Amino acid sequence: MEKAATYLINHRIRPSVQRMAIMKYLLEHKTHPSADEIYLALSPSMVSLSKTTVYTTLKLLTDHGAAQMITIDEHNACFDADTSTHAHFLCKSCGNIYDLFSQKDSKEVLPFDLEGHDVTEMHYYYKGFCKNCISRKDE
Amino acid sequence: MEKAATYLINHRIRPSVQRMAIMKYLLEHKTHPSADEIYLALSPSMVSLSKTTVYTTLKLLTDHGAAQMITIDEHNACFDADTSTHAHFLCKSCGNIYDLFSQKDSKEVLPFDLEGHDVTEMHYYYKGFCKNCISRKDE
DNA sequence: GTGCTTGCAAATCGTTTGCAATAGC
DNA sequence: GCTATTGCAAACGATTTGCAAGCAC
Asked: Of A37, A70, A103, which residue sits at a domain end?
């Protein structure tokens, strides 16, 4: 069976054609696409696909823990099939969002006092100028 | 002179009546208000105030480092006059945003490998259920 | 055939823009 | 008077909603 279908079933989501296509896209494109980007990428090969379905599916995936919504860019939500704890970096020049992972030798625990709140989600966002844009400027 | 006026001048922003009112509101209300909340709170006493001015002023404050924009809630941007590095916690039940500060004995540096990117902003967001909502449920 | 899923069109709502009126040096 | 600032109304754009048609077990 396809990886995307398995992934959906494991998260207790019925694998429709549309849902599999969107899940597959998220699993294969680690670029943190927006709903619109997913729609634009898939609609040529899925002519009947509607943007509404993309939105509802992304909400479904997020609610079932099959993806996470990233709000680092205030203009539109982005999505990531990797729900493990990692940080995101938004380049203010090119707009790309990069994944940042923990350094090998550091603790997983972050230095904030949670004051008795029950934390279910953690989002670590960094903004600035990415390596590529910096070296481009130097030329 | 008023604290808000001084604060604006220190950030090289001309202190107009509207800007002072908005800055004052942010300094006195640590509740991370949205543009709309600020507008609704100020408009009774500043009848001529327009929402446009609130938006442009908040952008000005953010650009000059006199406030920071928080995108923890995907529905609308919130603002915080405290630009020091601290985390935010959004309660999914009551919608309140709380400040979280560093634990005394921990390092300031977070365990993510920045991979050579130039970081200018850091945002640490936690979501879940706040202390108050948890104890309310227990009753 | 009953309930879940999809897709269209319209609505919603936070935010931005164009532009004319106003205020402050 | 000239420039920065304000405020109205309209535009914009991402997302949501209402609802009818289609699909799956």
From this structure: A70
